[in-house]
Amino acid sequence: MTNLIFYISPHFLVKYYLLKDLKTVAKKYSIKGDVIDIGCGSMPYKELFSDVSKYTGIDFKFYSKNSTFLKNKPDIYFPESYTKTLDLPLKSNSFDATLSFQVLEHHKNPEKLIQECIRVTRKGGLIILSFPFIWGLHEEPTDYYRFTEYAISELAKKYGARVLEVKRQGSVFSTITSLRNDYLINFSKKSILALLISVIIYPFFLISSYACLILDKIFNSRQIFLNYVVVIRVNI
Question: Which sequence spans correspond to the domains of the chain?
Fold first, then answer.
C-alpha cells in the first residue's frame, strides 16, 4: 500500500498515524458488508477494509488526489445540486459502515455531513471519521473548521448515534515537527533559492520526524496532538 513517497513525505507523521490507527480500527470492529467512503479522493485506505462485500467511494469530479498511495477513482460523483442541498445522493440505511477521512474540516456544514452519515448508515452500523485537530491551513479556500472529540460526541447524540472510541494521533513533538515541515513546503515555493535551501535542510527535518515516533511515547499529551480518528455507532 505504501511506497517511498510515504516514507520521505513531509507529512509522514500524520499519514503514518492515520494508516496505523485505521488499520487497527478496521480489524477491531471487523468492518464488513457494504461500505461507503464519503469524500473518498483516490481512496488511499481502501485496502485496509479488505473484508467488506463492497467498497464504494463518492467525491467531486475534481477530487483531491493522494500521490502517496495507490490511485483509485471515485465510483460515484456528487451531483451539481450537492453544493446547494448538501444531501448525499444515497438511500437511507444503505450501508453497514460509513467512512470519511480528512473531510470534515472541508465541509461547509459539518453538522449536516454527520447527520447524513448517520442517515445512510444502517441501525447498529459504524461511522469512522478522521479529521485534524492542530494543523495548518490546507486546500484553501475550502478549509473551514477544526473540531474536538466533545463537539463530535454532541453532534452524534443529536442525530441518534454515540461515540464508541476516540483515538488522538501524535503528541507535542509530532505536532511541532509536522507544522514545521508544512511551513517548509510553503517556504520552498517562494523562490528558487528557497527551494534549494529547503532541499538541503529537509533530510534533517525528516530525521526529526522519525525521532518523534519515540518522543511522542515519552512526552505524551492528551491536549496537544495532530489528528483524530473517531468511531461512532448508529443507535439500534
Answer: 29-170+226-234
Please state which of the ranges 19-33, 71-85, 161-175 shows the lowest mean pLDDT: 71-85
Q: Check pLDDT > 70 for residue 70.
A: no
Quick check: pTM over 0.85? yes
Q: What is the DSSP letter of 104?
A: G
Burial of 77 (0-12, 13-18, 19+ CB in 10 A): middle
Report the amino acid identity of residue 231.
V
* Distance, CA of 164 to CA of 230 (rounded, Å): 8
- For 137-162, what is the mean pLDDT? 96
DSSP label at residue 44: T
Q: How far apart are CA 158 and CA 155, in angstroms?
A: 5
Hey, what CATH topology would domain 29-170+226-234 get? Rossmann fold (3.40.50)
Q: Could you tell me which residues come within 8 angstroms of residue 145 by beta carbon, excluding any fewer than 6 positions away?
A: 104, 105, 107, 110
Count Cβ atoms below 10 Å from residue 72 Cβ, excluding itself.
18
When pLDDT is cut at 50, 70 and 90, the band that residue 3 belongs to is confident
* 234 neighbors 122 (Cβ within 8 angstroms): yes
Q: Among 10, 16, 5, 38, which residue's Cα sits nearest to residue 136?
A: 10
